[in-house]
Design brief:
This protein has 229 residues and is of the alpha+beta class. The protein has helices spanning 58-74, 84-98, 109-125, 146-162, 191-207, 212-221, and strands spanning 6-11, 15-21, 26-30, 127-133, 136-142, 168-175, 178-185. Helix 3 (109-125) packs across helix 4 (146-162). The model is unreliable at 1-34 (pLDDT under 50).
Length: 229
């Protein structure tokens, strides 16, 4: 999505500067403080500071007009992939294409698609029965059909990765139709940390960690050790 345009700073003696951010680029351009670019914006009327044509900075003025036109054009370009998993794979494809070292003989985008299916199954269709235990929570995460396998892959693997990391102590055991996962704060007696763990619950815990996007790229690259699929 195109971010709203906000004027943030000033270049001394020259122009008021705004940061205009789109998904693909950041541009600087000049205008009156508080201005905002919309489809109705007349970029020919953008000001580079000062209303006197004879004394204005014409180079800055032309740069401001050009940047305004780019920002206006960006409003007319769709940026959403249409569906979250589709967009995630699309992003990975762009990364693979941009990397001259990509080994396309090993690329496994189908594996990534199936992993994203697992994420969807667990996020949207798993049942969670959670209870408080000393230091955190224990939860039975269960489902039917394809959801069972997704739970056993996603929850168990995440538990293994996060146990002893970022202040967690985690254990996951297979049960009928799913997994029983126990998550505790590593700092015994830390009331705030324990409250956070319970507040996160299963889905919050599953989202935690900085490894997710790297893991998706590893699956797509067909790297050894990328879990699942």
């Amino acid at each position: 999505m195109f971010d709203s345009v906000r004027w943030r700073a000033a270049l001394p003696m020259v122009v008021n500067v705004a940061l205009v951010r789109t998904v693909g680029f950041v541009v600087l351009f000049a205008s009156a403080a508080g201005a905002q670019v919309t489809l109705a914006t007349d970029c020919t009327k953008v000001s580079a500071g000062g209303g006197d044509h004879a004394t204005m900075d014409h180079v800055a003025h032309m740069a401001a007009i050009t940047a305004c036109e780019k920002a206006r054009a960006a409003l007319m370009v769709p940026t959403q992939g249409g569906q979250a998993a589709f967009a995630a794979i699309q992003e990975i494809v762009r990364i693979l294409d941009a990397d001259p070292n990509t080994d396309w003989s090993r690329v496994n985008l189908e594996g990534l698609r199936r992993h994203l299916q697992d994420m969807d199954e667990v996020t949207m269709r798993a049942a969670v029965l959670q209870r408080s235990v000393a230091g955190g929570f224990q939860a039975d995460v269960t489902g039917v059909g394809a959801t069972v396998g997704a739970i056993q892959r996603m929850v168990v693997n995440h538990a293994k990765m996060m146990d002893g990391v970022d202040g967690y102590l985690v254990r996951a055991d297979s049960i009928t139709d799913g997994v029983r996962v126990t998550v505790r704060a590593a700092a015994a007696g830390d009331v705030k940390a324990e409250a956070r763990v319970r507040g996160l619950g299963v889905i919050g815990f599953l989202t935690d960690g900085t490894h997710h996007v790297r893991h998706h790229l590893a699956i797509a690259r067909g790297e050894a050790g990328a879990h699942g699929h």
